[in-house]
């Protein structure tokens, strides 16, 4: 077992089976505090299952999960969020009938006593501050022109950025992103990487599951490669992704 000291997120020997199929097998990953850590692998490698275990949406059969040295194994997802463990999803989970601004406001529900009252037409001083904070998150993701648009009317790539803006509203300490660049245009992806690095520079630890290797190599300090639910390789992105084992896992030759 690795030493979890100094890790923002420590995944220790995690295993998970679904009806006899081994989705994860003894996966151990230490994510350094303040790092951008990529998790990649072929389809079916167990990447999203791992995020689901880390965030409590799926209960592991073995192993444990520590967030800043707090053992959260067995905790519900909503109990983990106040520790700063926040995620986005591979499949978008926005409120399509609400505006961009309203969707981002919902991101603060886990830490604000006012909850959905922050969207009321006659806000208190605290609620006005939350609205201003939501506007800041929207601008940071380049969505200012869409503030009052319904989320369901936006292009898919912009909806992915909106999910990230909503996640920022929860004040993440460890932010898990499940295929955040999927559906983005090439121009959107070029802007996405600097935003991730700027977020890291504010002290947020980021874990990215992503198929776009250009995003991984430009944004990540470390990359972990999974294959058939097992850890295949780990290290600096350029070196790790160029290894023969990783190439074989992806292309079969």
Spatial strand sequence of the major β-sheet: 6-7-8-3-9-10
Just give the CATH class of the largest domain. Alpha Beta
- Helical proportion? 25-40%
Using only CA atoms, what is the Rg? 18 Å
Average pLDDT works out at 88
**Strand content bin:** 15-25%
**CATH architecture assignment of the largest domain:** 3-Layer(aba) Sandwich
> What's the number of structural domains?
2
How many β strands by DSSP? 10
Description:
- The protein has 253 residues and is an alpha/beta fold.
- The chain has 2 domains: 1-84 and 172-253, P-loop containing nucleotide triphosphate hydrolases (Rossmann fold), CATH 3.40.50.300; 91-171, no CATH class.
- The protein has 9 helices and 10 strands.
- It has helices at residues 47-55, 77-80, 100-106, 125-140, 156-168, 186-201, 213-219, 237-241, 244-251, and strands at 7-18, 21-32, 36-40, 62-67, 70-71, 85-87, 174-178, 205-209, 222-227, 230-235.
- Strands 6-7-8-3-9-10 form a 6-stranded mixed beta sheet, with helices on both faces. A 4-stranded antiparallel beta sheet has the order 2-1-4-5, covered by helices on one side.
- Helix 6 (186-201) links the parallel strand 7 and strand 8 (205-209).
- Helix 3 (100-106) packs across helix 4 (125-140), helix 3 runs parallel beside helix 5 and helix 4 crosses helix 5.
- The chain is globular, with a radius of gyration of 18 Å.
- The two termini are 32 Å apart.
- The model has no long low-confidence stretch (mean pLDDT 88).
């Amino acid at each position: 077992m690795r030493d979890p000291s100094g890790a923002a997120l420590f995944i220790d020997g995690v295993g998970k089976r679904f009806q006899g199929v081994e989705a994860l097998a003894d996966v151990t990953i230490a994510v350094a505090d303040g790092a951008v850590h990529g998790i990649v692998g072929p389809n079916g490698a167990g990447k999203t299952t791992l995020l689901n275990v880390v965030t409590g949406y799926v209960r592991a059969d073995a192993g444990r999960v520590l967030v800043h040295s707090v053992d959260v194994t067995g905790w519900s997802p909503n109990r983990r969020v106040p520790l700063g463990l926040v995620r986005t999803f591979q499949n978008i989970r926005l409120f399509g009938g609400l505006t961009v601004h309203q969707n981002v406001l919902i991101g603060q529900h886990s830490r604000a006593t006012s909850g959905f009252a922050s969207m009321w037409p006659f806000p208190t001083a605290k609620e006005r501050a939350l609205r201003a904070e939501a506007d800041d998150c929207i601008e940071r993701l380049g969505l200012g022109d869409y503030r009052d648009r319904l989320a369901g009317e936006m292009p898919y790539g912009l909806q992915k950025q909106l999910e990230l803006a909503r996640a920022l509203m929860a004040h993440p300490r460890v932010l898990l992103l499940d295929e955040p660049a999927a559906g983005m245009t090439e121009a959107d992806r070029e802007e996405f990487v600097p935003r991730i690095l700027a977020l890291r520079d504010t002290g947020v630890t980021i874990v990215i599951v992503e198929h776009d290797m250009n995003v991984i190599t430009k944004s990540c300090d470390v990359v972990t490669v999974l294959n058939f639910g097992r850890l295949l390789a780990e290290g600096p992105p350029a070196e790790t992704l160029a290894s023969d084992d990783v190439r074989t896992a992806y292309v079969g030759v």
